[in-house]
Write a structure and sequence with these properties.
The chain is 36% helix and 15% strand. The chain is α/β, with parallel strands linked by helices and 143 residues long. The longest helix is centred in the C-terminal third of the chain and has 20 residues. The radius of gyration is 15 Å and the shape is globular. It starts with 5 loop residues before the first strand and ends in a 6-residue tail after the last helix. This is Arsenate reductase. InterPro entries: Ptyr_pPase, Ptyr_pPase_sf. Pfam families: LMWPc. Keywords: Arsenical resistance.
Amino acid sequence: MSNEKLKVLFLCTGNSCRSQMAEGWTRALKGNEIDVWSAGIEKHGLNGTAVQVMAESGVDISGHESKLVSELPKVLFDVVVTVCGHANENCPYFPGAVKRIHAGFDDPPRLAQDAKTEEEALEAYRRVRDEIRAFVEKMPKNL
């Protein structure tokens, strides 16, 4: 059995929220068996509310940066997980025997835009954070 870690990329549109949460959860929960990256089709900057709700769960993603796929090191990924519909539809080509999986999660900023209070907005982010954690906890079996 190879002791090489599974190489996983989480891909979303702007690499600001969902893919960053997924990267943070994977490092925290599965770092001993999975090497993880996140990137976007575009670069929107790290979402401060995502950083806040991840910190509430004990995961620090404040040092993450929003990045494009083209800015990643040259890695032959085993699995590319798209976390939003736009990224799934516009997923770039990856060389090698990469497996593509779509695991769509709601967009927290979009969910929070009509919130009446800050707490209501935070609840939208927390729900998606917890859904992403549940997905990551099942890795790598669900990949």
